[in-house]
Amino acid sequence: MKYPSTLRVCFLFLTFITFGLFGNSHVQAQSQKNSISSANADNVEKIRAAPSVIFRIENTLTPPTEFFEYLEIKGIPPPNMEQVSPGEFHIYDLPSNRLCTIEFKGNGPALLGVTTADLSKIQRYILGNGALEPDRIIAADANGSGTVTAADLVDIRKVLLGKTPIFGSGVSWKFVPAFSEFYYTGTTIDLGTIKAIKIGHVN
User: Fold this and answer.
1) pTM of the model
2) What angle do CA 41, 42, 45 make, to 5 degrees?
3) Is 190 within 8 Å of 54 (Cβ atoms)?
4) Integer Cα distance of 176 and 111 in angstroms
């Protein structure tokens, strides 16, 4: 069947309009999808840029600016932690309006930084022939008894001789403070500087 030329022209015009509208709708939908993806990415960046908790680690073996690799952290609720720069840590995504508890622990090689020179210095302290700074007194308490005695010398000597892999305290590092409890309202909390003390290292 043959159609009048005018009818064919109208048909082609309608077809052109239909495909034009569909094409524009597809482009608009794709553009809207890209905008949503971009917005989601921006939201993620905003969340990551606003940590729940920040704190810094200072230790007795290396400067505060160096990487501290033996930190273990436990908490209620369980923390999502990252080291954002050498010595500075951020915790993200804590649920707001609740009491939170953070516990700092540290393992790693027991012999890190520990030598017979530490034994000699601790012995002098016990005999009253030398002084130790407060954080070094904590470091000298190898068995975790709360005091520095000859038993700590025995404990450290066992580790140096390879008779036991860990000190009597069960950890390689102690932290001051060891716990932090706070009520998180949704605003970033700065816990300040946490001191990491290497057990057995007093020099």
Assistant:
1) 0.72
2) 90
3) yes
4) 21
